[in-house]
Amino acid sequence: MALKAITPDYEKYTENRDLPELYHGNLMIYVHWEHHISFVAAIALPLPPQTPFGAIKEAIGGVYGPHPDWAKIDWSHAIWKIDGKNATPDFDKSIADHGMGHKSLVRFWTPGLDGYHGSLN
Q1: Closest by alpha carbon to 57, among 38, 41, 68, 43?
Q2: CA-to-CA distance for 94 and 83, rounded, in angstroms?
Q3: DSSP class per residue in 39-87
């Protein structure tokens, strides 16, 4: 549904509360495990830019860990996309080294693991 502002300069009357400078030096990073739709949305992680990419795996394990597929993941075969581009992350390099910025989206697939009994859940 299209919306039309009732005033042409509506930006003057709004406050953007999602600006990077409001995150105290952190970047808001979104991470989603594809083919596991029981997790309906990406996980949001506020992380310093110097965070090693490998720390993301540890952080998301707190959410995805209870899924029966989680323990079966062979990370060497995971497929990654960062902001829509194929990526081969270096787990020791920082998220900034990977070109990630505020509100970057990391998606990953785990071949052969397609949810509980292949249900994508």
Answers
A1: 43
A2: 16
A3: S-SPEEEEE-TT-BHHHHHHHHHHHHTTSTTGGG--GGG-EEEETTEEE
Q: Please, which residues have CB within 8 angstroms of residue 35's CB and are 6 or more apart in sequence? A: 109, 110, 113, 114, 115, 120
Residue with tokens 């292949």: 118
> What is the predicted pLDDT for the residue at 120?
83
DSSP single-letter state for residue 119: S
Amino acid symbol at 107: R
pLDDT of residue 69: 95
Q: In this predicted model, what pLDDT tens digit does every residue of 98-110 receive, in sequence order?
A: 999 999 999 999 9
Structure tokens at 62: 């707190």
The residue written with tokens 């400078």 in the block is 21
Give the model confidence (pLDDT) of 23-69 as tens digits: 999 999 999 999 999 899 999 999 999 999 999 999 999 999 999 99
